[in-house]
Amino acid sequence: MMRRTAALVIAALCVSLSACSAPAPEPQTAAKHSDGRLRTDLAPLAERYPQLASAESIEWMGGTLGSRDVGPSTYWVDVIAVMPKSEIDVYRSTADLVKVDPPTLVDDLAPKLPTGPFEGSPELDDLFSSGGHGATVAIDPQTRTVVLSGVFD
């Protein structure tokens, strides 16, 4: 009887220890799928993000998030836009900005980022997020660049 109890305690301890030492799964970001085209047309972005309507130049890529097997339900867009100084001044006066890293962009667009430093804040993100179009935004005031990574349905 003593042997059986000891074996049960050891077995329970082993199960308990192995459960505690198992690594937690890392959160995964949904994969971005696109046709690989670098775009420079402003109209589709200005509809979703009217704050970009006065962009002097713009480069962007977009596509769908997640599994292609399920079908597209969420779309993404990564944008680098040069804005008039007056617009950058408005963005800077609208929110308490702090130094931030720019949003992570798709590999084909990331090398086009200016070197920064970048400024951003939750308020700036909110300024660009409306009507179901969410955004993470950073600005480089020196180059008058807005970097936006957005999602929408």
Describe the structure concisely for a colleague.
The chain is 28% helix and 27% strand. It has 153 residues and is α+β, with helices and mostly antiparallel strands. The termini are far apart.
Structure characterization notes:
The protein is of the alpha+beta class and 153 residues long. It has one domain. It has 4 helices and 7 strands. The strands form 2 sheets. The chain has a 5-stranded antiparallel sheet. The chain has a two-stranded antiparallel sheet with strand order 4-5. The relative contact order is 0.17.
Q: Report how far the terminal alpha carbons are from each other.
A: 63 Å
> Beta-strand level of the residues, as a percent range?
25-35%
Overall geometric form: globular
Q: How much helicity do the residues have?
A: 25-40%
Flag low-confidence runs.
4-28
Q: Residue-averaged pLDDT, rounded?
A: 80
Total strands = 7
Number of helices: 4
Largest sheet features: 5 strands, antiparallel
Strand order of the largest sheet: 1-2-3-7-6
What is the SS-derived class? alpha+beta
How are helices and strands ordered from N to C?
Answer: HEHEEHEEHEE
How many domain regions?
1
Supply Rg: 23 Å
